[in-house]
Amino acid sequence: MPVQKKTTPKKVTRNYMDSIPERSEQMPWRIREDGMVEIDMENKGFYHTIAQKFWKKPRISHIALEKYGTVVWKNIDGQNTIYDIVRIMEAEFPEEKDRMLDRVVTYMGTLQRSKFITIKES
After folding, report:
1. What is the DSSP letter of 93?
2. Above 90 in pLDDT, residue 11?
3. Measured between alpha carbons, how far is 60 from 40 in angstroms, rounded to an integer?
4. What digits encode the pLDDT tens for the residues 43-83?
């Protein structure tokens, strides 16, 4: 009788490029007069409260995004995948097409760590 080999089920890995970023509803934002996006971030927590009282630090920080961040942010609509956003960025900035994938993935990671966006699986 032949010996049957045990097989473990393969782990299904998801492609990060198929993930869909969504903006956090707790982060109000607006488009400034110069067309750039500005995000309001409330500084909460024990250390922020101390800094606000003793060093007159602001309760709300206004984070101004540059041209790349503005295009990325405007295209985070809960429907575009990261792949879609990379393609949009390549079309918007064709002179930097070869670096755009790294730029967008790095930017998405920064936005996610800052809790400006969440990434959901498609």
Report:
1. -
2. no
3. 6
4. 888 877 787 778 877 888 899 999 999 999 999 999 999 99
Q: Are 20 and 12 in contact (CB under 8 A)?
A: no
Which amino acid, one-letter code, is at 112?
Answer: Q
Contacts (Cβ under 8 Å, ≥6 apart) of 3: none
pLDDT digits (tens, 9 = 90+) for 89-112: 999 999 999 999 999 999 999 999
Q: Say what the pTM is.
A: 0.79
Q: Token pair of 33, please? A: 């007069």
Q: Which tokens belong to 39?
A: 């995000």
CB atoms within 10 A of CB 27: 16
Which H/E stretch holds residue 74?
Answer: helix 67-75
